[in-house]
Amino acid sequence: MELRSILHLDLDTFFVSCERLTDSRLIGKPILIGGVTDRGVVASCSYEARKFGIHSAMPMKMAKQLCPEAIQIRGNSMIYSKKSEEVTDIIKEEVPLYEKTSIDEFYADLSGMDKFFNSYKIASELRKKITEKTGLPISFGLSENKTVSKIATGEAKPDNQIKVDYGNEKPFLAPLSVKKIPMIGDKTYQTLCGLGIKRIETIQEMPIELMQKALGKNGVSIWRKANGIDNSLVEPYSERKSVSTERTFDRDTTDIEKLKGIMLAMAENLAFQLRRGEKLTSCVTVKVRYSDFNTYTLQNRIPYTSADHVLIPKVLELFDRLYNKRLLVRLIGVRFSHLVSGGYQINLFEDATEMINLYHAMDYIRDKHGDRKVMRAGGIEARTISRFNPFTGEPPPLLANRRA
Questions:
Q1: Which is higher by pLDDT, 202 or 384?
Q2: Which among 29, 42, 199, 287 is least buried, having the fewest CB atoms inside 10 angstroms?
């Protein structure tokens, strides 16, 4: 059986690094990216901020208390998407098979490459090329499987690289905290600590049956990963199937004009993202979360389109059907899914030439000057909508690239 070589690449504090490319004055300073209000959360933070105990998903209010001098930035999804696209294109050119798991994280299968060229050298040159062409720091881990490579990348950060040789997987993992194992969150970590398990070596020394008894099927998966066993494949990068955005309010509201204005702006912006990414949608979903945290969604299938004048009325229609006027609203969101590749489809019975030319003109201005430079008057209320979704920690609600 041929030995595998699996590479894991992760851009270091990606959003922060992108902002520093735009403004070099941010270099070396504690940076917080995410919601700028007290109800927002930290989506990303610099290593300088992490020294104060700040981490992703922490409430922004708490982060500011830990580091009052930190610079808060709302974030710019257009910049992040473009830089991610640059990195993706470089990786696509250099490796035979890759998987993009998020806007800033990749796997590549270099198995068999040692017959022609050293896999570690290939990975090192790829990392160097990415940094030179994009200006972004990136780290990697290289081993025989995804789990060990991902953990190795975490140990290599920031801006470094680690190779774990065949047969050294268990010794490499043994001294590390069990929290380093992918899939172990705070709750599972607390459970393991309650069992006296804090280091991976302890799991390695335990019978798999004991882990299964303590944590069920999840315990078996953790035991395998702790022992450096992972047969999962690098899945070829597939197209994105949806785009979405949300807005959480500083104060819960029943202002119907404000809510509709923001829904309109969300739909308009996402429709632009569809056209920019040469995509069409056939499913529209609207989401409403009330002050009691009950969340409701409603969706409709429609003919494939990327047109504002089709999508906006549908979004507002679904919102009207979903909205309960008696309750305060905490969050609203829009999602376009079931995406396929394709340009805007002209409806010969409804579309005038002026409408098509208007879309082209507006999209040109947005591409050149920013996606908020041109917008409908009804959506002006939403001008301050975050260009980055800080509440879910998800990648920006834009299409990552035209081919992604």
A1: 202
A2: 29
Q: What dihedral do alpha carbons 138, 139, 140, 141 form, nearest 10°? A: -170
- In which element (H, E) is residue 100 found? strand 98-102
pLDDT by residue (tens digit) across 297-355? Answer: 999 998 888 888 889 999 999 999 999 878 999 999 999 998 877 654 444 334 444 55
Q: How far apart are CA 16 and CA 20, in angstroms?
A: 6
Beta bridge partners of residue 161, listed in sequence order: 140
SS3 151: helix
For tokens 């529209």, the residue is 284
Sign, CA dihedral 224-226-230-234, equals: positive
In angstroms, rounded to a whole number, what is the distance separating the alpha carbons of residues 293 and 329? 9
Residue-wise pLDDT for 66-76, tens only, equals 999 999 998 88
Q: Please, what is the Cα angle at 48 between 78 and 160, to 5 degrees?
A: 80
> What tokens does 12 get?
């270091």
Angle in degrees, CA 10, 122, 145, rounded to 5: 55
DSSP, collapsed to helix, strand or coil, labels residue 144 as coil
Residue 357's contacts (CB-CB under 8 Å, 6 or more residues apart) are none
Lowest mean pLDDT among 123-132, 185-194, 259-268, 362-371: 362-371
Q: Which of 92, 175, 173 is nearest to 126 (CA)?
A: 92
Alpha carbons 165 and 3: distance in angstroms, whole number: 11
DSSP 8-state class, residue 402 = S
Catalytic residues: 105
As a three-state string, the secondary structure of 313-371 is HHHHHHHHHHCCCCCCEEEEEEEEECCEECCCCCCCCCCCHHHHHHHHHHHHHHHHHCC
The residue to which tokens 């002209």 are assigned: 346
To the nearest 10°, report the CA torsion of 42, 10, 276, 90.
160
Model confidence, pTM: 0.67
Angle at 249 between CA 56 and CA 277, to 5 degrees: 70
Q: HEC states along 214-235?
A: HHCHHHHHHHHHHCCCCCCCCC
Cα Rg of the chain (Å, integer): 23
Cα of first residue to Cα of last residue in the chain, in angstroms, is 33
Tokens found for residue 182: 């992918």
How far apart CA 47 and CA 24 sit, in angstroms, is 16
